[in-house]
Amino acid sequence: MYFESLSAVLQMDGHGGFVWSAYLITLVVIVYILYAPRRREQRFLRQLRGQIRRNSGAAAPVREES
Amino acid sequence: MWSFFHKLGSPPWLYRISGSILRWLLPLTLLALVAGSVWGLLFTAPDFRQGNSYRIIYIHVPAAVVALAGYYVMAIAGAVSLIWRMKMADIAMRACAPIGAALTFVALVTGSIWGKPTWGTWWVWDARITSMLILLFLYLGVVALYEAYENKALAAKACAVLSLVGTVNIPIIYKSVDWWYSLHQPASIKFTGGSTIDPSMLYPLLFMIVTFYALFTCSLLLNMRAEILQREARTGWVRRLAGEREPG
Amino acid sequence: MNTLSTPVFCGLLLRRQLVLGLRKPIEIGNPLLFFAMVIALFPLGLGPAPDTLAVFAPGILWIVALLSNLLSSDGVFRSDFEDGSLEQLLLAPQPLYFSALAYVLAQWLLTGFLLALLSPLFAVMLGLDAAAIPALAASLLLGTGVLSLVGGIGAALTVGLQRGGMLISLLILPFYMPVLIFGSGAVQAALAGASAAPYLAILGAMLCMAVALAPAAIAAGLRISVDA
After folding, report:
1. Is residue B79 a part of any domain in this protein?
2. Which of B140, B161, B172 sits opposite C178 (nearest CB)?
3. For labeling, which of A44, B92, C49, C61 is most exposed (least CB within 10 Å)?
4. Is pTM, for the whole model, over 0.90?
């Protein structure tokens, strides 16, 4: 460990603001590129489930192509 | 060999296999991201000229490297989809563009933040920065073209052509921007050349580059899974999948 | 039915495009008028001091040439796409590669070529040193060829879209940047008293590469757009 205390880690000899904001922005982007496709997939599956349920709820004997 | 290609072209197979890859790759990548950041932020000595601000290198350089490599991945996927008409390749190509744009954005923003304490300014028209900015425009162009087409199969083809044109052009753009900068270079600023890096700083950097490649792969697979489901919405296996996951 | 040989077919296509262009002189005049008007904006924005203008003149002339080329390249295939003759062209037995080249050549003759011929006039208005004018005209002559070819790729990819106009500039402006760098570099070199030949040689090399590769991309783009 290079730094002695937590405040030294946060300060980084006056460069802390730059370093930590760079890491924070990167973190936000990484979370976004991992979370956005996941959410798209979940939302699509939810929509499809709703669609299937509506079709089966109608209990139509003839399965129509949507 | 050929059966492998046929499997690669099969959406359900790719969906299943990507799920089992992500199950271990995603946690591993996140762990490595944390480990690499802690290593770079806390366990390396500061640079003797730039002090602690150089620690941004551990995200800046990996993001830039992977952003550039991502363009080539996109172009190769585009070529595969144009030549062999492989549906999975154009899904991969389409997935590359937003991830590449996001990583290019990270490289630009972190570079700019790094520039402030180092050179005293947020932005300089340096050769590398300018090239990265152009790369961002190239990525956004592909995204814009894809969104403009109604028919997504044609959109993917058009983007494949555009990304191949980009692949031919990127070396030209890089070389000419490099040359342009050497012509106009202000005497006081010189970033390139003579940069030797100590092994104690190099190892965490290499570690982070590998981690960012893994991150790119994870996001690519996640994007492809979402895209596969949407394109295959009418097939039986997707409908069964939606049924299986029904919570109630 | 006997088919025309490829050179004859392309010659006819070129003549058709030129005749169509010449029938509407306003359409030819538009990019040139645009060029003149934007040039007139710079003294208004930067101030009329001749020294300042002369310093920026190489960059200004090249950027404006680039923009006027961009505007005109949007329309290369538009009217033929709308009336269906593009579809006929795709069905023709002659290779699309050469037909695309004929289209771009016609567009270049009516915009880039005329622009290069008229550029000395605007260069004088901006106070560019007379020594740099041959370099400007030569660099524009070579450079606009590359711009037309690259612009053709953008036009081919966006011709089937409703709102192609803005999109095409997003797609192809990044590819215009090397041409801008070396084009204005040639003029600046001539201003500084050095030879512009190396820059012109690089522009020539870019033109050769664009002639070899761009028509293939244009052909692929046209096939996609006509499918849409």
Report:
1. yes
2. B172
3. C49
4. no
